[in-house]
Design brief:
Elements: H1 2-7, E1 11-13, E2 18-20, H2 33-42, H3 48-57, E3 60-62, H4 63-70, H5 74-86, E4 90-93, E5 100-103, H6 106-114, H7 118-134, H8 139-149, H9 152-168, H10 172-186, H11 193-214, H12 219-230, H13 238-254, H14 258-272, H15 278-294, H16 298-314, H17 320-323, H18 328-342, H19 346-363, H20 366-383, H21 386-402, H22 406-422, H23 428-441, H24 448-461, H25 465-482, H26 488-501, H27 505-522, H28 525-536
Antiparallel strand pairs: 1-2, 3-5, 4-5
C-alpha cells in the first residue's frame, strides 16, 4: 500500500519527510490489496506490457523466453526489467542476458496476468507454445501454454506426451495428472472419430498407470477400463480392443475368480485368432495361459505360451511402458517358467526365470521388475528355495517403496510372511493370517491357496496338526470356489502328512493317492513325484 501511494505522485520526498503535492482529498487509497497492485501495474507504462507478457510465462520466468515473445529491442527489454526490479515487483537471479526472474508474490503475477484481455493472453500463450515447441522444452510446459492459448488439439498432444514420459520414468502421480488433463482436452474434440479413439487410448493408459501404482484392483483403473469398454465401438484397432478386454479380465484374475477370468480370456483368444496384428494375438494368448496355470492346466498353458512367444519374437514392440503394465516378453517368461516347472522341466524353468529377472533388471522399469519378482518368488515357493524367495522379495520391496506402488508393497509383505513360515519362525503362521486379511481387503486373492499350503506345512512342523489341518481345508475350499486348482495336489499331500503324523496310515494313504490323482490329471509332473514319494514312504 505504501509503495502504491509513493508511486502515485501524490507525495514528494524532502530531506526530512514526505509532503503532499496537493489536497489530501486527491489522494486515492485502494480498497483492497488487489486494487493496490493493479494500480501500481497500471502506472508502469510503458513497461506494463512486458510485465504482462512475463506473467503469461509464469511466476518464474527467464529473460531468454521473454525476449522471444516481447517484440521489443534488447535495450528496451532490459530497461523494462530494470524498472520492474526497482519497483520491487520482481526479483532477479543471475546476470543478464542469462538472468531469471520471479514475481515478488503469486498475487502480483496474477494481477498482471488478469489485466490482459483474454484474447491477448491467448495470443501470448500461443507464441510461447511456438517458442517452447521449437526448443523441445518439457512437454508439460508446452502443454500448459497450449491449454491457456485454447489450442486444444496441441494441448491434448503435449499433455499426453508429458504423461507418457512420466509413466516411463516412472512417476505415477505425475503421469496420472498429465493424462487426465489430456483426457479433459480430448473431451472437447469428440465430434471427430480420431479423437474418440484417442480417448480410448488415454483411458487405457490411465488405467495402466493406476494398476502400476495401486494394483490390479485399483478403483481408478476399473473406472477407466469401464468407460473404455462402454466406448469400445469407437475403435477398429485390435490392439486397443485387447487392452480394453484386458481390463475386463485382470480384476477377476487377480481377485481369483478364475472361471470368469478364463471365460473372458478364451473369448478374446477366439476373437483375435483371425487378426493380422501380432500383439493382440500375443496378449490374448498370454492372458489365457496365466489363467490356465492357476487352474491347474499348465500343459495347455504352455501351448498358448509357445504361440505367444513366437508372436513376441516377430512383433516390433516399442514404447511398451505406455501400452502395457509390464514388458510383454517378461510377462510371457514369467508364466512360462511356472508352467514348465509344473510340467516337470525344473531346470528349464529356472533358466527361464533367471532370464526373466535379467531382462526386467535391464529394462529398469519398476512395474516390470516387480511383476517378474512376483513370479520368481512364486517359483521359489514351489522349489522350497527360501534364500531366493527372500532375496527377490527384498529387491521388490525396495522398488515398491521407492515408487510408492501399494500392490507390490503388499506382495512383499505377503512373501515375507510366507517365507517366515518356510523358515519355521514362530510368528510365521500369524503373519500369513494378517497378510492375507489385508490381501483380501484390496480385492486380490490370487494364489491364496498356495500361501495357505506353506502356512500349513509350518504349523505341522511346529506340532500344530489341528492348525495345519484347518489351513489345508481352508485352502481346498478356496480352491474349489475360486477355480485355482494348481495347489490342490500339494494341499492333499500335506493332508496326508498330517494324518501320518497322527498315526493314521490309512487316511494318509488315501490323501496321498488323491494328491497323485490330482497331479496326474493336471499334468503336474513334479507334484506327482512328491505324492508318489510320500506313498512309497508309508
Amino acid at each position: 500500500m505504501t509503495k502504491t501511494i509513493l508511486e502515485s505522485g501524490d507525495l514528494r520526498e524532502t530531506e526530512t519527510a514526505y509532503e503532499l503535492t496537493g489536497p489530501l482529498s486527491r489522494v486515492t487509497i485502494p480498497a483492497t490489496l488487489h486494487d493496490s497492485l493493479m494500480a501500481r501495474i497500471d502506472r508502469l507504462q510503458p513497461i506494463k506490457e512486458v510485465a504482462q507478457m512475463a506473467a503469461c510465462i509464469g511466476r518464474n520466468f527467464d529473460r531468454a523466453a521473454l525476449e522471444k515473445i516481447a517484440g521489443v529491442s534488447e535495450q528496451t527489454l532490459d530497461d523494462a526489467l530494470v524498472q520492474l526490479e526497482q519497483s520491487e515487483l520482481v526479483f532477479r537471479r543471475g546476470a543478464p542476458p542469462d538472468a531469471s526472474y520471479v514475481f515478488k508474490h503469486a498475487l502480483v503475477r496474477d494481477v498482471a496476468y488478469e489485466s490482459l484481455l483474454k484474447r491477448r493472453r491467448q495470443d501470448i500463450h500461443a507464441r510461447l507454445v511456438e517458442v517452447f515447441e521449437a526448443e523441445n522444452a518439457a512437454p508439460e510446459l508446452t502443454a500448459y501454454h497450449a491449454s491457456q492459448a485454447g489450442l486444444t488439439e496441441k494441448a491434448a498432444e503435449f499433455w499426453s506426451k508429458a504423461g507418457s514420459q512420466a509413466q516411463a520414468r516412472p512417476a505415477y502421480d505425475e503421469a496420472a495428472n498429465h493424462l487426465k488433463t489430456a483426457l479433459i482436452e480430448v473431451g472437447g474434440l469428440l465430434d471427430e472419430p480420431v479423437w474418440r479413439e484417442r480417448e480410448l487410448e488415454l483411458l487405457v493408459q490411465i488405467a495402466q498407470v493406476y494398476i502400476a501404482k495401486e494394483g490390479y484392483a485399483s478403483a481408478e483403473a476399473s473406472e477407466a477400463f469401464g468407460k473404455a469398454m462402454q466406448r469400445i465401438a469407437a475403435t477398429d484397432s485390435a490392439e486397443l480392443r485387447v487392452a480394453i478386454y484386458y481390463g475386463a479380465w485382470i480384476a477377476p484374475y487377480i481377485g481369483n475368480r478364475l472361471y470368469q477370468a478364463y471365460e473372458t480370456a478364451n473369448r478374446l483368444v477366439e476373437a483375435m485368432s483371425g487378426e493380422a496384428e501380432l500383439i493382440p494375438r500375443l496378449i490374448s494368448r498370454r492372458m489365457r495361459a496365466a489363467t490356465l496355470i492357476s487352474m491347474g492346466r499348465s500343459p495347455e498353458a504352455l501351448e498358448d505360451l509357445k504361440v505367444a512367444y513366437d508372436l513376441y519374437q516377430q512383433a516390433e514392440i516399442t514404447d511398451f511402458a505406455t501400452k502395457f503394465a509390464q514388458d510383454p516378453g517378461v510377462q510371457i517368461w514369467c508364466y512360462m517358467h511356472l508352467a514348465m516347472w509344473m510340467c516337470g522341466d525344473r531346470e528349464g524353468a529356472l533358466v527361464v526365470a533367471d532370464r526373466s529377472m535379467e531382462l526386467a533388471r535391464h529394462l529398469n522399469h519398476a512395474n516390470t521388475f516387480c511383476y517378474a519378482g512376483l513370479h520368481d518368488i512364486t517359483l521359489a515357493l514351489w522349489e522350497g528355495d527360501i534364500s531366493r524367495a527372500r532375496k527377490v522379495t527384498e529387491e521388490m520391496r525396495q522398488v515398491a517403496i521407492e515408487h510408492d506402488m501399494s500392490l507390490w508393497k503388499l506382495y512383499a509383505w505377503i512373501f515375507e510372511a510366507v517365507t517366515s513360515c518356510m523358515a519355521d519362525e514362530a510368528d510365521g503362521p500369524a503373519r500369513v493370517d494378517a497378510a492375507l486379511k489385508d490381501y483380501r481387503a484390496t480385492g486380490c486373492w490370487l494364489w491364496a491357496p498356495l500361501f495357505l499350503a506353506e502356512q500349513a506345512k509350518a504349523q505341522l512342523r511346529a506340532g500344530d496338526a489341528a492348525g495345519a489341518e484347518a489351513a489345508v481345508k481352508r485352502g481346498l475350499a478356496e480352491a474349489e470356489v475360486c477355480g485355482e486348482r494348481w495347489a490342490i495336489p500339494e494341499l492333499h499331500r500335506i493332508l496326508g502328512d498330517i494324518s501320518r503324523s497322527q498315526g493314521d496310515s490309512a487316511a494318509a494313504a488315501k490323501a496321498y493317492e488323491q494328491a497323485a490323482a490330482d497331479a496326474r490329471a493336471q499334468g503336474a509332473v513334479l507334484l506327482l513325484a512328491r505324492a508318489e514319494a510320500a506313498i512309497e514312504g508309508l
